[in-house]
Amino acid sequence: MTQTLSLWRNANLATLSGSSSWGWIEQGAMLTQGETLLWVGAEADLPIDQAPFITHTHDLGGALVTPGLIDCHTHLVYGGQRATEFEMRLQGESYEAIHRAGGGIRSTVAATRAATDAQLLASARKRALALMSEGVTTLEIKSGYGLSLEQEARCLSVARQLGKSLLLGPVPNRRKNDIAPAAGLALPAAITVRTTFLGAHALPPEFEGRSDDYVDAVCAWMPELQARGLVDAVDAFCENIGFSLAQTRRVFETARRLGLPVKLHAEQLSDQGGAALAAEFGALSCDHLEHLNPNGVAAMARAGTVAVLLPGAYYFLRDTQLPPIATLRAAGVPMAIASDHNPGSSPGLSLLLMLNMACTLFRLTPEEALRGVTVHAARALGLKDRGQLAAGQRADFCVWDVEHPNELAYWFGHNPCQRVIVGAQERIL
Ligand code: NIG
Ligand code: FE
User: Fold this and answer.
1) What atom in ligand 1 is closest to the CA of residue 237?
2) Could you list which residues have their CB under 5 Å from ion ligand 2?
3) For atom 3 of ligand 1, which residue has the closest CA?
4) Is the separation of the CB atoms in 273 and 248 below 8 Å?
5) Are residues 397 and 372 in the same domain?
6) Mean pLDDT, to the nearest integer, of 45-65?
7) Which of 24, 224, 263, 416 has the fewest CB atoms within 10 Å, measured from its CB?
8) Ligand 1 environment, Cβ below 6 A
9) Domain CATH for 321
10) In this structure, are residues 249 and 215 in contact, taking their beta carbons and an 8 Å threshold?
11) What percent of the chain has pLDDT over 90?
């Protein structure tokens, strides 16, 4: 079967490909075949030999087009919420103190364990739809609120199910907001979900005082979760309220034996030397990094590890320690931006707001911020087939009601996303 050849014309493209500013192409066009970009360039240079085979032409009305956005760090599947802890923090209680008193991550673990699969799926679906309304086409979801083999498997399965149940429309016999497609219809997915096993997120109550035993358990569950097809990467929370460097190393060694890539919640609240350890294991990314030291930066640069910056957590925890942006930039470490959506440190559901915060709080340029949710976010997930508008990449892209890409980091509390195309098909939510 020959695949449809479509022309998408009359757009200004921020391709983020090549070395020019924004990878800018004025009055550009794209040819897609199947789910893939076949050609991207100035409309005037459209390859003449392809023209007779074009079956569909889409006029994008002179709008701005960017790659689909990628949220490369979220904890989207959980039960309950932590607004009361927010109030406690506003009264002066610290995030760490709340955690040590048995609240924090552990209160979400209790709420998650108490929730049914259907409740977890329904709440995660609402959150995913909110992110998708702003152009997110690829989403990473971590476990870490189950903390037992079956509960972690359940949360990862919900994440997988979410990816399979959010489908492209419009489709015959499908009502708006239907979770499942009508029987017999095989529909393309509206989003790619990548799952990360974060068993080493916190110590569950049944392992109180036995953190090394818990790390043994996490390592023992990993092959089983992998065999069930639930794990794309492995993460850990290396922190004084999380797991030690030695414990993180054990988690990474198991991941390496299984051929699973690693990522790390590193240097969020203190400098543990986690980033250098993660770099030693060729980590895809180190995330947070407020307390990252120059050694860690150098190690990440050598290993090609992405720095995932999470301005939502910095903002919501009212942090004052900035990640070492200038040092990361000077060392050539690619910087990604993500929502870190979770109920404790970053309950936000707007990746566009994160672009704005990355600029206002972290002093990234608007172009760095956009690269952070496209090309560098793809790299933080180990995905080579997306993040740019270029031949061979997936045809995931967003059409924006703005004139210039710097506006994506400029407006806040406003969503200029007009259309989202996934695998060369219109996404209707
Ligand atoms: O990325 N730091 C650890 N994990 C999450 C927060 C989890 C929570 O507070 O529930 C984060 O900030
Ligand atoms: Fe996180």
Assistant:
1) 3
2) 340
3) 237
4) no
5) no
6) 96
7) 224
8) 75, 104-105, 108, 237, 265, 268, 313, 340, 342-345
9) 3.20.20.140
10) no
11) 93
